[in-house]
Write a structure and sequence with these properties.
alpha/beta
């Protein structure tokens, strides 16, 4: 009998080990849930890691109020599971001031996401937060360890990270510290999709090609998801066959023209692609915004 582990088996085992190690050491862990494919895989791994018990931590969605409607539908479906506790946090100051992606640029990301996350972690006393970030997504994320320790203000210092040689992890926290934990650090986008195919994991329909109402702006294809979408004077809404590689706030997430309408077709498309999945994220390109590394130092996930 051939008992050799496959590449996906090894990644799965590593991620499950990280999940269990964190729960063993943390007093109050939480899993960030963004309704994306990485969150779906991470949640699936967590269910496997602690089966047959329910998850030993809640899910946390830091809501900007500007996600795609399909993403909110997925969130509600996940929250309907009685074995899952979902916490939704909306930044009160951003709500009060009406912070939005059209009028406030980088401030939208800072107040809704960075400040909102720090508020939620402090409010509920979470000392360890699982995130679905991967090293292949972006260069500053490639710098970060699997266990990323933060000071009492949730700040990250890339020059003061603990070594993780041979996948040995020191997860003991000093007084006042918290940690962000990335079980998918060593996965690639292709690994994620191959695992979704193997495990039959449900993801939001936005990942699959379909006719959608869109506008082209600053070289990106944006979807008109609801009546709040502001159109420029010369813009026209055009139906295009598109899908999303990394959906977020819909006015800030660029689509790609594609005919890939199944997981198998997405994998085939990826094998022929040489572009980053985050090429459609406006927050990564905004010249007026801080770099991703600076955002992370300030508490961004």
């Amino acid at each position: 009998m051939n008992s050799r582990l496959t590449h996906l088996d090894r990644l799965e085992a590593e991620s499950i080990f990280i999940l269990r190690e964190t729960v063993a050491e943390a007093a109050r862990p939480v899993m960030l849930y963004s309704m994306g494919k990485d969150s779906a895989v991470m949640l699936h791994l967590a269910k496997k890691a602690f089966f047959p018990s329910p998850l030993p931590f809640p899910l946390l969605h830091v809501d900007t109020t500007w996600k795609f409607e399909d993403m909110y539908a997925m969130r509600d479906a996940v929250a309907a599971d009685p074995a899952i506790e979902l916490i939704v946090h909306k930044t009160p100051e951003a709500l009060e001031k009406g912070i939005n992606p059209f009028d406030h640029g980088p401030l939208h990301t800072d107040m809704w996401k960075t400040q909102g996350l720090k508020q939620a972690l402090d409010k509920h006393g979470f000392d360890a937060a699982f995130g679905g970030a991967r090293r292949d997504e972006e260069k500053s994320r490639a710098k970060e360890r699997v266990f990323s320790f933060r000071d009492k203000s949730h700040r990250w210092d890339p020059k003061r990270q603990r070594p993780e040689l041979w996948s040995l992890y020191n997860v003991r926290k000093n007084k006042g510290e918290s940690m962000r934990v990335f079980p998918l650090s060593n996965w690639t986008e292709l690994d994620v999709w191959q695992y979704i195919l193997r495990e039959g994991i449900e993801v939001v329909p936005l990942y699959f090609a379909a006719e959608r109402p869109t506008v082209e702006r600053d070289g990106l294809i944006l979807m008109v998801d609801d009546e709040r979408m502001r159109l420029e004077p010369d813009e026209q809404v055009i139906s295009r066959t598109v899908r999303f590689r990394t959906p977020g706030c819909y006015p800030l997430s660029g689509a790609v023209e594609s005919d890939a309408a199944s997981v198998e077709e997405i994998i085939a498309e990826m094998l022929a692609s040489a572009t980053s999945e985050r090429q459609g994220r406006i927050i990564d390109k905004d010249a007026g915004a801080s770099s991703m590394e600076k955002k992370k130092q300030e508490g961004y996930f």
